Amino acid sequence: MNVFDSLIGQEHAVEEMKHATTDAAKVAIGERGDAMTHAWLITGPPGSGRSTLAIAFAASLICPSGGCGECVDCRNVAAGVHPDVEHIVPEGINYKVEATRSLIERASLLPTRSPWHVIVVEDVDRFRIDAASTLLKSLEEPPPATVWLLCAPTVDDVFPTIRSRCRHVALTSPTFAAISQQLTARFGIDPAMAAWATRAAQGHIGRARALATDESVRLRRKQILDIPTNLRVVSSCFDQANKIVASANADADAIVTPLDQEDDQDIRTAFGEGAEGKGLKTVERQMKSALKDLDDRAKSRRRRVLSDQYDRVLLDLTGFYRDVLIIQSGSDLVLINEELRPKIEKLAQTSSSAETLKRIDVIRETRDNLLANVNPVSAFESMLVTFRNPQLLSSGS
Ligand SMILES: [Zn+2]
Questions:
Q1: What is the mean pLDDT of residues 280-289?
Q2: Which of 184, 219, 185, 218 is nearest to 201 (CA)?
Q3: CA 332, 335, 339, 343 torsion-angle sign
Q4: Are the C-beta atoms of 209 and 366 separated by less than 8 Å?
Q5: Residue 372 CA, ligand 1 centroid: distance in Å
Q6: What's the 7 CA to ligand 1 centre distance in angstroms?
């Protein structure tokens, strides 16, 4: 096993990271290793695994065996409790200058038990100019043992000054074929089911796996796709909006509960194993504080996962109307929801493509509203009311 095993269809990036790991070991003992550098920018679309790659690279730099995935160091990095690896996500919409300053101060510290002090920074596109220039100073004069792993959706989302200090690794969306092969190879999922789930998830790996393995996830997806043809009276929009929000919350719980339990277990194991030689009381106190941090991170993870679930509902509905549009335009492209063809054809015949486009527009508008913290039930309700009557959507929006 190796820490990079969970990356799918990113062979070239994994090769580069492994090469850098080998050279990092040389640099650490004063030899030359050109494949290693102090600042990396990892970009890739959602679901491509950019933070998975960053965490795996962090573990491979820290692990005495170059990322075995099994030793205490690898497990602690994965659990987010390794003293030499920091994993930073923005608190709120953007990175704050104060928080960035204290991050830079910590970044200059020497590692405690490994050759490198690794800092993984997610969503580098959320640095505004003031916080970015603070970060830039540390990138320009990196402390000798510090490695920055910056993650962003695309290069264009990152300030050119930051970009130019980093070596760039680009992840691509893996092909549907690569994803469904991986689902079969790693999880023993039946090939036909794997192919269907990959198409239904429109290439999002985590979602495809959940659809292929969890009947209740498939059922909830089906309920979402029943909505467009089930809005006979306006009052049903409110009921359906409530159902969407309840179902997204149930999906979010199904995802985070096992992760929370694993993290909790990892921390207990980590402190249990580190107990020798130290006072038991000290270890207990450190463990309590680690569990408290974990609780904070668990809350912010649940918020992120829930917002992913709303996105997923919107993605499923966009896919549905994309299928309607394909029929309306007379194209013979494969439908995302091939199994719903009769229903989709009926809707295609009883509405115009202009209406379909308006419905797709209002889905996009709903996503913006959710990002702007509009109450989710209200946001979905107003979307469904527009689904019923697309004329309600003003042409200016
Ligand atoms: Zn290891």
A1: 82
A2: 218
A3: negative
A4: no
A5: 41
A6: 17
d(CA 115, ligand 1 centre) in Å: 14
Phi, psi of 42 (to 5 degrees): -105, 120
Q: What is the DSSP string of 127-161?
A: --HHHHHHHHHHHHS--TTEEEEEEES-GGGS-HH
Distance 22 CA to ligand 1 centre (A): 14
**Rounded to the nearest whole angstrom, what is the distance from the C-alpha of residue 249 to the centroid of ligand 1?**
35
Burial (0-12, 13-18, 19+ Cβ within 10 Å), 283: middle
Amino acid at 229: T
Rounded CA separation 274/251 (Å): 35
Contacts with 152 (C-beta within 8 Å, 6 or more apart), sequence order: 41, 42, 43, 50, 123, 124, 125, 158
This prediction has a pTM of 0.68
d(CA 318, CA 324): 10
Q: Output the CA 123–ligand 1 centroid distance in Å.
A: 26
Give the list of residues 6+ apart from residue 136 with CB closer than 8 angstroms, or none. Answer: 159, 161, 162, 165
Q: How far is the CA of 76 from the centre of ligand 1 (A)?
A: 9
Return the pLDDT at 373: 85
- C-alpha separations of 295 from 137, 285, 301, 317, 331 in Å: 32, 15, 10, 33, 50
3-state secondary structure at position 64: coil
Q: State the Cα–Cα distance between residues 252 and 210, nearest whole angstrom.
A: 12
> Tell me, what amino acid is at 257?
T
pLDDT tens, 306-353? Answer: 888 898 899 999 999 999 999 999 998 889 999 999 999 999 999 999
Nearest to 250 by CA among 305, 198, 300, 213: 305
- Which is nearest to 57 in space by CA: 167, 155, 209, 176? 167
> 319: phi > 0 → left, psi -120 to 50 → alpha, else beta; which?
alpha
